[in-house]
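[Q] Does anyone have a clean structure-token version of this?
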Amino acid sequence: RHFRELARFLVVFFVYSAGLMSIIAFVGVYAERTVGFSPDELIVLFLVVQISSAAGAIGFGFIQDRLGASRTIQATLVLWIVVCALVYSSSSKSLFWGIALFAGLGIGSLQSASRGLVGLFSPVEKSGEFFAFWGLAGKGAYAFGPAVFGLLSSTLHSQRAAILSTGLFFVLGLVGMAFVDEKRGQAAAAAWSASHAD
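[A] Here you go.
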């Protein structure tokens, strides 16, 4: 009960991570079957995504230092909503390369900013426990998000339709982040540490 902002954030994290994990799980399948990528192009695509993901984690780290983890997450979720809309509306291979570059930035930044916010909401003495909850939420999202994507894709016979469900996860995550107060979460962590200091 003391760490309500953390509890709220873990729920929101589960929701938008379901979208993120869907992208990670199905980007190769989508690129091959819907956009028409060859196996060699898929290898290059994964390299591009990995490199841009690392760049996103570093670049958005500086943004996080200035704006805070919560606002950085919100900015990245907006990026993901745009990515999903572009993927849904386009079948151009050249445009998909650009979309993949931005998607990679979103993967690295969203994961690093989320980890950072959990750290801010966690007293040092309870960080192992709280990061375990964060990891559990992420693993649950990895099971839930791709299952929804796969179910919709097979039921509607369209990966483009399924990508809209992924975008919805990010929209819900963006709305949910409006109810997570970063300063209050940090204050709760500091108050707990102070009350349990030797």
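[Q] Thanks! Anything notable?
[A] Residues 64 and 96 are 27 Å apart (CA to CA).
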